[in-house]
Specification:
With about 210 residues, the chain is mainly alpha-helical. The chain is built from eleven helices and no strands. Helix content is about 80%, strand content about 0%.
């Protein structure tokens, strides 16, 4: 790993944990054991560093998802494993980070939204492939189901989550149960058993 990649990796770790506004260029330089001058030679400002860090994360996640799809037996199985992978990223991402980006860096927030839209398209396409293979109900409204789940993800990671959910549920609890409801609701009778077997193992790994 070269210096630039190490800086990006540390930036991702810090912003994910404590948010963007609490992560300063001084802080990143100290964590990397370099001078501010060296940091600014590689990244002229904080927005440039944050943008490259987000694109690095996106590309890394895309590579991982491509590997999952390539190794899965069918699109529905791939989606189950993709959710198991993505949930860890969602749950480890500070709500403060997303709110900071939305508030302080609109152009960077748009990159985040564009990738979310791109993921939704892939989600829909994979479910349609599963539908063509008889793994999803023929009468399922896939676009509407994915749109609903997308809204939920945004709400869970938004600042109003605690006000909307008046119960001792974690973000992970809400996301997991909602995804399970979504995927089992879309599934054909032939694929329910496969989903339930996956979920049994999924629960044991939590």
């Amino acid at each position: 790993m070269d210096l630039k990649e190490r800086i990006i990796t540390i930036t991702i770790q810090q912003t994910t944990q404590v948010g963007v506004s609490s992560t300063t260029m001084d802080h990143i330089a100290r964590l990397c054991g370099i001078s501010k001058r060296t940091l600014y030679e590689l990244f002229p400002d904080k927005l440039t560093l944050l943008t490259e860090a987000m694109r690095y994360s996106i590309n890394k996640q895309r590579t991982k998802l491509s590997e999952i799809i390539a190794n899965a037996n069918n699109p529905l199985e791939a989606l189950l494993h993709i959710y198991a992978n993505i949930r860890n990223q969602i749950n480890s991402t500070s709500r403060v980070m997303i709110e900071d980006i939305r508030r302080l860096y609109p152009s960077l927030y748009q990159v985040y939204l564009d990738e979310h839209t791109n993921n939704n398209r892939h989600f829909v396409n994979m479910l349609k492939k599963a539908q063509n293979q008889g793994l999803v109900r023929k009468n399922a409204n896939i676009e509407a189901a994915v749109a609903g789940f997308s809204v939920l993800i945004h709400h869970v990671k938004g600042e109003n989550f605690d006000y909307a959910i008046h119960a001792p549920f974690s973000e992970k609890d809400v996301l997991d149960e909602s995804f399970i409801t979504l995927i089992r609701g879309l599934a054909s009778s032939e694929s329910i058993a496969t989903i339930d077997r996956f979920l049994e193992n999924f629960d044991k790994k939590q």
